[in-house]
Amino acid sequence: LLSEIQDEYNTRKAQKIGDLTSTVRALSDWEAASKSLDELNQLLKDPTTDAELRTLAAEEIEQTSSNLPALLGSLQSTLIPADPFASLPCLLEIRPGAGGSEAGLFVGDLLRMYQAYCKRQSLKAILVKLESTPVSKGSGEEIQEVVLEIESPGAYGMLKCEAGVHRVQRVPATETQGRTHTSAASVLVLPSFPEQGNDDDFSTANFEDPNSDFYINPQDVRTDVMRARGAGGQHVNTTDSAIRLTHIPTNTVVSIQDGRSQHKNRQKAWRVLRSKIAQARKDAREEEQAQLRVSVVGVARMGRGDKIRTYNWGQQRVTDHRSGLTLNHLDNVLEGGSSLDEIMASVRAWQKERDVQSMVADEEAAASRQKQK
């Protein structure tokens, strides 16, 4: 690979070299520590070893033994297949779930949380779509759907842990008797692809390849042009600028009406549609693998429809149900602060453990199939 990129630089091959280099380095560190541990133990077993050297060897054994789990963890991490979308920008789609108007208000809280997080992390975030209506009682807006695009490379890898159902427990602004309500909102994290892909920029970025995750046959998409609805000034309801795309095989619908330009709305709609179809295909592959793992060793997959986190206003508590971490810093989390970083880091660690389990399960499944032949 090194000789190949010396002649002509290729991003995909260079990334592969980087991945292999980290694996080789991690394996080398682990082997060196294991070898050192064996040699130190031999020193202790040798009856000719003097007392001072025995003391030094015992101390070194304790230190080396304490380092081995971390070295093994680093090695396991490099062996886990990288997410093919990890280096891409992403789209965050947030929709209200159960809970009526309160769920729509909670969507707004989550939107502001992610916008603050992106600002603190110096990630460029822009609103692609926002549909809302004023709340009948109290202040604020009830959001029906919002799509936030984080254009910075690697945003998908950072934020994919946020996908799932977020639950809120609080007294709504519209509640007159002080009762605590439970509402929910779903967060969908989608990879955002470049307008035109090529193999050097991204390993599967070829919109014309039927085998790629985000290939869409134009004949499978129905396009409807409509007049924009809702508040928005003199241009709304006067021009046919709203676009609705329907992917007929999957019945996936995307509608965009935020811009005045039909052309720009069409571009946005296609970008969101490609992202949704690509994520659905990736989810389908992972679900198929998860079913196989369950049948062999019982390693299940947590899907995006599962409840992942609870925000409790009364107790100022946030609990992530995957990693099990609970923090009593609700305000800091909602401000996109360091507490949100801590929660996301705990989920990534949890996911790494699951990936290792899945990797072992795949090996056991392959061995089981081999025995059956």
Q: Mind sketching the topology for me?
A:
Layout: H1 2-7, H2 11-45, H3 51-79, E1 90-96, H4 101-120, E2 125-134, E3 141-150, H5 155-159, E4 164-170, E5 181-191, E6 221-226, E7 242-247, E8 252-256, H6 262-296, E9 307-312, E10 317-320, E11 326-327, H7 330-334, H8 338-372
Parallel strand pairs: 4-9
Antiparallel strand pairs: 1-3, 1-5, 2-3, 4-5, 6-7, 7-8, 9-10, 10-11
Helix pairs in contact: 2-3, 6-8
Any overview of this molecule?
The structure is a single chain. This protein is of the alpha+beta class and 373 residues long. Helices cover 46% and strands 20% of the residues. The protein has helices at 2-7, 11-45, 51-79, 101-120, 155-159, 262-296, 330-334, 338-372, and strands at 90-96, 125-134, 141-150, 164-170, 181-191, 221-226, 242-247, 252-256, 307-312, 317-320, 326-327. The strands form two sheets. It has an eight-stranded mixed beta sheet. Strand 9 (307-312) and strand 10 form a beta hairpin. Helix 2 (11-45) runs antiparallel to helix 3 (51-79) and helix 6 (262-296) crosses helix 8 (338-372).
**Average predicted local confidence, pLDDT:** 80
- What is the terminal-to-terminal distance? 36 Å
Largest sheet: 8 strands, mixed
State the shape. Answer: globular
Strand content: 15-25%
Count of DSSP-assigned helices: 8
The total of beta strands comes to 11
Query: What series of H and E elements makes up the topology?
Result: HHHEHEEHEEEEEHEEEHH
Unreliable residue runs = 197-205, 232-237, 292-303
Determine the structural class based on helices, strands and strand pairing: alpha+beta
The amount of helix comes to 40-55%
Q: Rounded to an integer, what's the Rg over CA atoms? A: 26 Å
Widest sheet, order of strands: 2-3-1-5-4-9-10-11
